[in-house]
Design a protein that fits this description.
Keywords: Hydrolase, Metal-binding. This is PDEase domain-containing protein. This protein is mainly α. Helix 5 runs antiparallel to helix 9 and helix 6 packs antiparallel against helix 7. It starts with a helix and ends with a helix.
Length: 277
């Protein structure tokens, strides 16, 4: 049982670690702790009554508590950003990436409903699919996932914390071969990177799916409606967005013209979006 003071300390630690998962802190964390492996390498380790290794303050009075917290923050960040570490394409990694883009697109739909003059970010504009999902995933891997994994690898190797494996080579280098677990994660990351790069290149060669797909129709059945002659003033009904391949996550594509076509109010559209998440 914890004393009241210890309980408050542990609670504060948990709160701080959860806040570390805020994406706004990722780049600053990577910049501030680029030399974390060096601080760990200079710290003495000990085992307390057979428990997990813990830091011991050395003769120079290093900030061991801060280093310990930084390591915990690194671990929870990796867990929070672990989707690209999953095994290869056509797996949970790709499915989860699609779910994230669905959330972005729905947010963009809502923003366009309430402010027709808003300029959406590319990752919120479904008209850029699949280019934007490839761009998002590649940028996520290059700028966040890979740097954090490299930091974690160097830190573990500097600590000598890989069970049954000795530290090899320069701890500052990207040496993951001494730990099969890290090697497996790195391999998965590279496979996902290659997959999204190939998808983007194929998209750039073949062009947007809208150039090959048939015209998009609203959710009500237009096929049942009788054909009408064009009006005498030469005006034609504005067509919606082109439909994307229905074989790939059809529910991602929600045209910004569907609300108007179905006569839905903004509140009803919000309900539609929230109920389909």
């Amino acid at each position: 049982h914890l004393t009241e003071q210890d309980r408050l300390v542990v609670r504060r630690l948990f709160v701080d670690l959860v806040l570390e998962t805020d994406p706004a802190t990722n780049f600053d964390y990577t910049r501030r702790n680029a030399t974390l492996h060096q601080a760990v390498a200079c710290t003495q380790w000990a085992s307390v009554q057979g428990a997990a290794p813990c830091f011991q303050d050395d003769m120079e009075g290093r900030h061991v508590a801060h280093t310990r917290y930084t390591l915990l923050a690194l671990i929870i960040k990796l867990a929070d950003l672990s989707n690209p570490f999953r095994q290869g394409p056509q797996s949970a990694a790709e499915v989860y990436a699609e779910c994230i883009m669905r959330e972005f697109y729905k947010q963009g739909d809502v923003e366009k409903i309430y402010d027709h003059c808003v300029r959406l970010a590319n990752h919120q504009d479904r008209r850029h699919y699949p280019s934007n999902i490839c761009t998002c995933q590649i940028a996520f891997i290059v700028n966040l996932a890979q740097p954090l994994l490299s930091m974690h690898s160097r830190t573990l190797l500097a600590m000598g914390a890989s069970p049954g494996h000795a530290v090899r080579g320069d701890p500052s280098g990207p040496c993951v071969e001494s730990c099969p677990f890290l090697e497996s994660i790195q391999s998965n990351l590279e496979a996902n990177m290659a997959h999204w790069t190939a998808v983007r290149e194929r998209y750039e060669m073949e062009g947007p799916p809208s150039q090959k797909a048939e015209a998009h129709t609203p959710r009500h059945d237009k096929a049942a409606e009788p054909e009408t002659e064009p009006d005498t003033e030469g005006e034609t009904e504005e067509e919606g967005e082109a439909e994307i391949d229905p074989q790939t996550s059809t529910d991602i594509y929600y045209s910004d013209t569907e609300a108007e076509a179905d006569g839905l109010s903004p509140e009803e559209v919000l309900f539609e979006l929230s109920s389909s998440v």
